[in-house]
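Sample entry follows:

:::
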Amino acid sequence: MSMIRRREKEEVEQKIGNITYYGKDQYECPVCKTKFKKEELHQGGGRLIAGDLTDELHRLYTPSVKYGEVIPLIYQIVVCPKCLYASFPADFRLPSTAVIEKLFAQMQNRSISIKRFFPTLRFNELRTINEGAASYYLAILCYELFDKKFSPTVKQAICSLRAGWLFNNLDEKRPGENYAYIAQLFLKKATFLYRKALINEQKGIEIMSNAKNLGPDTDKNYGYDGVLYLVALLQYKYGSRTDMEARTKELMRQKGTLAKMFGLGKTTKEKPGPLLELARDLYDKLKEELHEEE
């Protein structure tokens, strides 16, 4: 065990009971029948001190003197410690027999694939940011096999975005280990998946509303409006720049969507709050790149 990993393990062990606890409900993995309990985050008590909201609708938290850094994202995904089947809690017990068979067949592939990022993971112990970031990648792999009724594409998009955030966090903690590069890969994947989810919704191929909570973070559900905003933002920040003509057309389309959805350019009281302000700021940035005058 590396010195960094050992120190992280000691830190999380010191916090058990203060920050997290094991839930009373026992999970039984529908794929390999392993039984386990999920680590949960205690609520209240000054553990989470809300900080800024980023342009990606990611809530930052200020470390407290008593509890230190707390990252809610790392506890959201249920992961079987044996076969690495992973999903959001509401979906974990529900895959069909056909999907379970596919998940079982892909068990070894999941194990091999995640080791490209983290050679050692311990989902049967207290989670570190390593397990948190890995859990979203595993969920992306698993949702690839889910039925359309579970809205898997938008859930993959949310998981990709969160993975990007956590890998960026890892880069801040351990610079020089290529985590920034991995973060960019996940953010680009989120860009593709959010756009795909929106197209599927508009064509009636896969309805996003079945996801119920569209996040993208844990503090607030920004719903369909949030998805529209993120599609535009991610295209602007991480979309391809190899074909500038295609990029211009895409940004024009996204600018029109923002203007229509948020009433930009008009006086509106229908969608107050931070999302409207962020949409206005993005709208101005799109106009600037497109060299449009007021």
Notes: The longest helix spans residues 179-202. The two ends are 58 Å apart (CA to CA). Residues 2 and 40 are 26 Å apart (CA to CA).
